[in-house]
Amino acid sequence: MYLNLGFVSLVSSCLLLFANCSPIESSTAGSPGEGPAFLPHQSYKRAPATFVHPGVLVDKAQLDFVKAKVAAHANPWYDAYNAMLADPLASSTRQPSPFPTVACGSSSMNPDTGCHEEREDALAAYANALAWYISGTKSYATKAISYMNAWATTIKDHTASNAPLQTGWSGASWARAAEIIRYSGAGWTSSDITAFGNMLRNVYLPEIIGGSTSNGNWELGEILSLSF
Predict the structure, then answer these.
(1) Separation in Å, CA 162 to CA 55, 108, 114, 119, 146
(2) By CB distance 3.0 to 4.6 Å, which of 11, 12, 62, 153 could disulfide with 58?
(3) To the nearest 10°, the Cα dihedral for 143, 103, 158, 90?
């Protein structure tokens, strides 16, 4: 697999899916004794005129919603959160592995120079950012920052045939992590924030801004990254 799909699913279930749903009691929720059903909010408001941080993939209200559910040990949020923490990518002893040039050939192999390291480090940063916001434990924030700073001061380019797809995948995860860390009082310094922003603008954006003539998987990955 190109991505650690199991880990992505845990992160998504912890926030994106369940943060957009709430238990609603109704006569059609299920049989007696089954408890509430999880039904999506029906919201059709226009996007705000001014972007509100944090707001990449999930906003503050959604993050606070999940945080409260985890604090109350309410499922499915609590189990999803603990499963995320148990993943090797969220380990406190794991270290970043930045590359100056990430070269990814067809299927991100032949060559695979920094390809899986970049994708996994970006996901690890996002997991630790989520863990910091939900738990309030500063060591998670420090860990997320260590991944972002390591790559921001190292990477210069993406090359080989899979460069646009690789850039889209990793860029989306980096932006999600950075958004949470920057706007949650995590202690990320202004100089480090500037360096990270320069990395996204100078290394990631040029690779994907022109789009792709490949299949929809490439286009979706690039759009996902650009939307952040």
Answers:
(1) 29, 6, 12, 13, 26
(2) 62
(3) -20
